[in-house]
Specification:
There is one protein chain. The chain has ten helices and six strands, in the order ββββααββαααααααα. By secondary structure, the protein is an alpha+beta fold. The model has no long low-confidence stretch (mean pLDDT 89).
């Protein structure tokens, strides 16, 4: 609890009669009195030196101007998204992309510290030294990203075509990243390089002749090539379809299942299979306290 008399900063939003934002500001004041667990009385000094006591939600008072700036942004976002939040039913989304109700395990290092996510990894993946296990861990993280993008794409079926192609573009970027990691694995595993990768590479080359996902990545996805005429760009954009993407995905995942099952069964379990099941209970980790959410929930 902030002591009485402490200087505080208050995010302030002015709305018109249609609940449209017409003004944003941060007001400096002092904590005057605690009303209850949810409300406080704050003393504000206006530019004309007139003092005024106002009632304010305790969750929105801040000790620093930076904190108030973040809180002001969160309040503004909450107002902007209110109609969507009122109409949208969160239970419609699967937990894979929705609100986590139970705990999940993931080997994706980007999810370390995320609430309700237990991080699982082999000890030789924690350092900066590259090895086969670390490459497979990265492939597993890419697989998780692709899985979430596809699930999001499925639940946005009724969006316009540009929105779908936009998500498809990011799936293509991730597929290119996965191919790069599989090529890198050849440097650390000669058995994989000689007995598994060549056939897979031939299949991808065959697809590339028709669908040109590498060109899409380089010219209109991960990079924007300005040395390409508009017709060429449009033709590349037209190739981003669910049908074409799944041509690649079917080959990628048949290949992953084949060599992971035979060469890396433990890694397959930790980085690909374990995240499919919930623990049913909330998970907490020491790093959770330092985790910064994309959106702060406003009540």
């Amino acid at each position: 609890m902030i002591p009485i008399g402490t200087e505080i900063f208050l995010p302030n939003i002015e709305l018109n009669e249609r609940n449209e934002i017409i003004g944003l500001s941060i007001i400096k004041g002092k904590l005057h009195k605690v009303v209850d667990n949810d409300n406080v009385i704050v003393e504000i000094v206006f530019p004309n030196r007139i003092k005024k006591l106002i009632k304010y939600k305790s969750q929105n008072i801040c000790k620093t101007r930076d904190g108030a700036d973040r809180k002001l942004f969160d309040l503004k976002t909450n107002i902007r998204l209110k109609n969507i939040k009122d109409k949208f039913q969160p239970d419609l989304l699967p937990e894979k992309i929705g609100i986590l109700k139970g705990g999940y395990f993931s080997g994706n290092p980007l999810r370390l510290g995320e609430p309700n996510i237990g991080y699982v990894a082999q000890s030789n993946t924690f350092g900066a030294v590259e090895n086969a296990q670390k490459i497979i861990q990265t492939i597993g993280a890419i697989d998780e990203d692709i899985e979430m993008l596809i699930t999001t794409l499925d639940y946005l079926y009724y969006t316009n075509d540009y929105t779908k192609k936009l998500l498809g573009k990011y799936i293509i970027i991730e597929l290119n990243s996965m191919f790069a990691q599989l090529m890198k694995l050849c440097d650390y595993d000669n058995n994989y390089k000689q007995n598994y990768f060549p056939k897979f590479k031939e299949q991808i080359i065959s697809l590339e002749k028709k669908y040109k996902f590498i060109v899409i990545r380089d010219q209109i996805a991960a990079h924007r090539d300005t040395n390409v005429d508009i017709i060429h760009s449009v033709n590349n954009w037209r190739r981003i379809t669910r049908f074409n993407i799944f041509k690649y995905i079917d080959i990628f995942y048949a290949h992953l299942n084949d060599f992971l099952t035979k060469l890396y069964p433990m890694e397959k379990k930790e980085y690909f299979l374990m995240r499919q099941d919930t623990t049913g209970n909330r998970l907490t980790t020491p790093m959770e306290k330092d985790y910064e959410k994309f959106d702060n929930e406003i009540i």
